[in-house]
Amino acid sequence: MTQFAAITGPQMSALTVAQINNFADTRIGALTPVQQASMTSTQLGGLSATSVAPLTVDQIDALTPLQISGFTSTQIASMSAEQQEALVHAVS
Q1: Smallest Cα–Cα separation from 60: which of 28, 15, 20, 18?
Q2: How many CB atoms lie within 10 A of CB 46?
Q3: HSE (CB half, 13 Å, CA atoms) of 26?
Q4: Using CA atoms, how far apart are residues 83 and 10, in angstroms rounded to an integer?
Q5: Of 49, 56, 50, 60, whose CA–CA distance to 90 is shortest?
Q6: What pTM was computed for the model?
Q7: Residue 88 half-sphere exposure toward CB, CA atoms < 13 A
Q8: C-beta separation of 9 from 34 below 8 A
Q9: Digits of tens for pLDDT over the chain (92 positions)?
Q10: Cα separation of 7 and 43, whole Å?
Q11: Do residues 52 and 70 make contact, with C-beta atoms less than 8 angstroms apart?
């Protein structure tokens, strides 16, 4: 986990969707604010439905509307009601 936490914002934004999907799902939920802010809408949209499950409400609240636009309907459908509510709040 220490190596994961050391990934910088520019390094995070340079990762491919495949590389991000190789992270353990628990690591997605442990993204630092800098790492999360560096993710693109394409990277977020490429996450598996099970990878979005660990995202916290606070993490979702911190996403920009552009980042949120990357989520697919399948990802959104797999989110909890609290996560979906956070999505609505983040884009309003």
Answers
A1: 28
A2: 19
A3: 1
A4: 26
A5: 60
A6: 0.85
A7: 7
A8: yes
A9: 567 778 999 999 999 988 888 876 777 888 888 999 999 999 999 988 888 888 999 999 999 999 999 999 999 999 999 999 999 988 88
A10: 15
A11: no
